[in-house]
Hints:
heterodimer; A: alpha/beta; D-Maltodextrin-Binding Protein, domain 2; 6-stranded mixed beta sheet; B: mainly alpha; two-stranded antiparallel sheet
Amino acid sequence: MTSSTPPPPLSRRGFLQFGGLGAGALLGASALGGCTSNTASTAVASATGDAWRQFAGTTINFISENTAPTAAIAADLRPFFELTGITVNVVSLELQALVQRVALDLAGGQSQYDVIYADPYQVLAPYSAGLADLRELNAGSSLPSLEQGFADFIPTQLKATGQFGAGGEIFALPYDAPTMIWQYRADIFDKYGDRMASDLGFDPTPGSDRTWEEYWRIADWINKYVNEIPFGTGQQAKQHDSLMCDFSNVLWSYGGDYFENGQDVGLYGTREPGPCLLRQPEAVEAAQFYNRLVSIAHPGSRGWDWDGVANALRAGQIAMTPNWHENAASNEMAQPGRIDYAPLPRGPKRSANIFGGTGIAISGNSTGARRGAAWLFANWATSPKTQLSNLKSRVGGGTPTRESVYDLAEVEKAAHRPSKLPNMLTTAAVTTAWEPEYIGLRPKIPMWNECDTALFTELSRMLAGQQSPESAMNAAADKIDKIVARGWVA
Amino acid sequence: MSTTELTRTQPVTTQPRSAARSRWRLTFNGALLAPGVILLGVLSIVPLVTLIVMSFSRVHLLGGIRLEWAGLDNWTRALTDPDLWQSWALTLLYFVATLGIEMVLGLAIAILLSKVVRGQGPLMVLILLPMFAAPAIVGLVGRYLTDPTFGLYAWFMQQVGFSQDILGNPVSAFVAVTLMDVWEWTPLIVLISLAGLSSVNPSIIEAASLDGANQWRMLRHIILPSITNILLVALLIRSMDAVRYFDIITVTTNGGPADATKIVPLRLYEAGFRFFDLGYAAVIGLMMLVLTIVIARLFVRLLTGKGQRP
């Protein structure tokens, strides 16, 4: 899917300023679009003297996954065009297709895509060498720097989505922040809470005080005693990336991890993570629990990814599920006032909520006016004002990645019903989930995609009854060790 | 040596040279064909050679494509990878299942359709419809029909006691994706078979009927032998497609559950475009190419054999 702003109109003021020559240059820039030369934009810049308008007439390409924040931005690019005179073509794709295009674009060295939706595990880690260090652009004297600087981004998100390696470079600005939290039918808990508490012997109210074992018992109880909803829980256990995400929440909460210093490997990333830890007893225990959990979950769970469980929750097929918090707006439309949110349950060690956020980066091959224009766009797209307007977007929008946006009165107010910004109903849950002791970060290593596939394939075999949890963890660890030993090639 | 002998021997020495020259001379037809043949050669041979070179290399993408010699690493890995061999076994099973069902079902429908006197046109349109849908759409439709919450087929299966998710169980998922392909491509066999059936000489059938042959004997001894070549062409076309089956599985199960539907094309895609391990992907691609050539040669030989039979 591609969308773009309309070609820049020639203003009366601009025409009078430039006279015939300036107008000719502007018209030429309009007509040539992506072929706009540095000379043309420099001419405009020097004439206007406005840092935001110095690349007017330039056209850049932004490639993104088809996510809610990009849908919101693509739906309303006019403010950016009015501010800068830059035309942005938004290419919106499914993540896998995006990764392919970015890899081939970086290989070709042509910079067809100036601004890149840089998934930390599939783009940032493997291709960080092909991305620009945004600190240099932020510090550039001729370019507008970030409003409130890098420090305004939520710290764990900036590290997880923006950095790779120990060099301190910032390759991407936090752009979206989906995080898995406990999503549940509050009306069911309200109606049956007392009976559940009496039967189960604990307060079933969802929150990080609950344990995964209690989650299992609540789900089982709903299966047996609640008629309004067929199943207590739904899991995203399809042989897919979603299965790794769903399992990771349990793994970390049981004290298991993929590699030594997992939190650092998740925050900063590395090319040599060391031996895989999935053979350890904590990981095996987590796998045993997950196997048990899926066995009482909705039978559709084995074929569902995150969209599947989201649809099931909205359709009243399940009473609760761990899922990305950015589903809140759609949940509120389908089941107004009935779905609530909490951090995920804890295991023997902690509550872990997997973070799936992504940043936007600038291609290292993008040069001249296009590089400058790309910075302006990345700066604008992650600015507090744009994030607030995305929140209000009719086409969805994500949730902010800047702390200052959460401090705004209207955003704080929207965290409670009735809310005009339904994604904000998750604020309490996600702000807890983003704290260092609650956040779950998968390893940021270049070969993660292949390791991820090895893990979810073995888990899928376990769920199909073809192997025990212990064998699944051992097989996954063996494969991951081999993949890591081979190293990253591309 | 006499003069007569010389003159007699001259043509003997010059004949082979001129024959050789005429063999290598570009004829008018050859000249017309040459640009196309050269283009085809460049388009086929250059990628093939590149693929072979890649299969012995580690392929680096960043900063421009760069090949680093890896010797037999990729080949050794492929030949000793149990997951890849499992995919080959699945591919074979899928190949036999889809082609078998499609051929039997397609021929049966074609024979029934050939007996229809009135309304054959509208019936034909209805039967051919699935073939015109893009495979990805067929996958999406299949996914909805087998969805455990609202899928029609899932509901039917639940009524007969199968309460699991059709695409979440290894056996049922494999059967489901196989049947989706059968649903889409059986019409092609119907179409081809029907064309073959229309070419069977009616007087032979009439004669056999007068001689007291029943329907089964006529099918076995007259109709099938008459349309064998056409059926082989249909089989050849479908088998080439079956080796490359990808879209429907990607949309429905993505190779799962438990790798139960991960046939070789999916593994090739995964190695090439998810892991960017292009050297290893080249090996899988070459293995697929060899299989395709073997299948094509087999069918062409069968066809040629049939054609030569008196």
